Amino acid sequence: MMVDKRAKDLDLDLIDMVQKARMLHDETAAPSDYTAVYWIEAKRRAGDFPAPTAYAGEWRVKLLAETVDAVWEALKALTVAGELGYKSKVSTRPAAGQADPDARLICIRTYDARDRADVARVRAALLRLGLNDLEYVADKPG
User: Hey, which CATH number is domain 5-138, 1.20.1730.10, 3.40.50.300, 3.30.760.10, 1.10.10.10?
Assistant: First the structure.
């Protein structure tokens, strides 16, 4: 069997160490404090949750820089507690080419867009937080 030299040379321990350091950083990071990294992430703690599938998706919440820190703190806490999806992330700056320099985006990942009950459960939690301008995007059609 032929092995791709690039894959063989990957140091998976180093990659794991970098990912863990990034998550430690992200635990206390506020979106308004950083622009060097585009996303700050929060992942749910280990528990009895379904693993993400190829049909995962995300709720998208568009916010302004002036409100993103407070909303992120609430969503991060709910994500870590396992009350939302398997991961949430927040942009620290607007997307390339975006007209509004204060635009920010929060994405709440769900494990499978085909699980309509779970997608609706996460939506209901977001609505309870007062987040009404929501858009759901599936990774691939299901």
Answer: 3.30.760.10
* One-letter identity of residue 48: D
List of E strands, 1-80: 39-43, 57-64
Confidence of residue 52 (pLDDT cuts 50, 70, 90): very high
Q: Give the separation between CA 86 and CA 125, rounded to whole angstroms.
A: 14
Q: How confident is the model at residue 110 (pLDDT cuts 50, 70, 90)?
A: very high
* Tokens coding 53: 């599938």
Tokens 């990774």, residue located: 139
Distance CA 126, CA 59 (A): 9
Token pair in block for residue 43: 């992942």
51 near 8, Cβ under 8 Å? no
